[in-house]
Amino acid sequence: MRVGSYAVATLAFAFLAGCNGVHLPDPKVSGRDAEFLALAPKAEIPSEFDRYQVDYKTSEPVGSVIVDSRNHFLYFIQPGGKAIRYGVATGKDAMGWSGRATVGAMQEWPRWMPPKDMLERWPHLQPTADAGGLPGGPDNPLGSRALYLFQGGKDSMYRIHGTNEPDKIGQGVSSGCIRMRDIDAIDLYNRVKVGTPVVVI
């Protein structure tokens, strides 16, 4: 499912406007978050993928999420022609996807269960699946937060989530999910709700 060309033009405008963005501070975190974040992998990423408030014009409603897969940015739409822009890692090559979804569920430090297609590609993950998945924590591939994307009322199996590979932010590396730095995933989680519309371009 493809979105209209107007959104692509909007993203091009927003990408240029991001040069004049306002860098935003990290959100406050709980004690559990602080403990896990201290143990999570660290990485320096290019400053363009930090969290900024930028000028952004779109016909999507305030409170929506727009993912620009090509340029590796996620935008949370704010009032007054503004958006919060986060750097993300997106799907590589044929594993990328586009379309519309809604946030159908949300979890903090979620358990990770390797999906069936991943088990077929990487059989060494089978013991993790047999054990009921990997508990939430700093080494978990889903990181600090997960937003479960639904289409037509059903789980699409795609997620917006944190990552235990922050060095991959700004790249096309995932199996289709949208990865964020753990602190950015916490920030976005605090702003969205179940039912939030998501557009992936």
The low-confidence parts are 5-18
Order of helices and strands: HEHEEEEEHHEEEEHE
Rounded mean pLDDT score: 87
- The number of helical runs is 5
Shape: globular
Q: Give the full name of the CATH homologous superfamily.
A: L,D-transpeptidase catalytic domain-like
Give structural notes.
Keywords: Cell shape, Cell wall biogenesis/degradation, Glycosyltransferase, Hydrolase, Peptidoglycan synthesis, Transferase. The protein is α+β, with helices and mostly antiparallel strands and 201 residues long. The protein has one domain: L,D-transpeptidase catalytic domain-like (Beta Barrel). The chain has 5 helices and 11 strands, in the order αβαβββββααββββαβ. An 8-stranded mixed beta barrel has the order 3-4-5-10-8-7-6-11. The longest helix is centred in the N-terminal third of the chain and has 13 residues, at 5-17. It is globular. The protein starts with a helix and ends with a strand. Mean pLDDT is 87; it is low at 5-18.
What is the secondary structure topology, with strand pairs?
Elements lengths: L4 H13 L4 E2 L7 H9 L12 E4 L9 E4 L4 E6 L3 E10 L7 E10 L7 H6 L4 H5 L14 E7 L2 E8 L10 E3 L3 E3 L1 H8 L7 E4 L1
Features:
201 residues, alpha+beta, single chain, L,D-transpeptidase catalytic domain-like
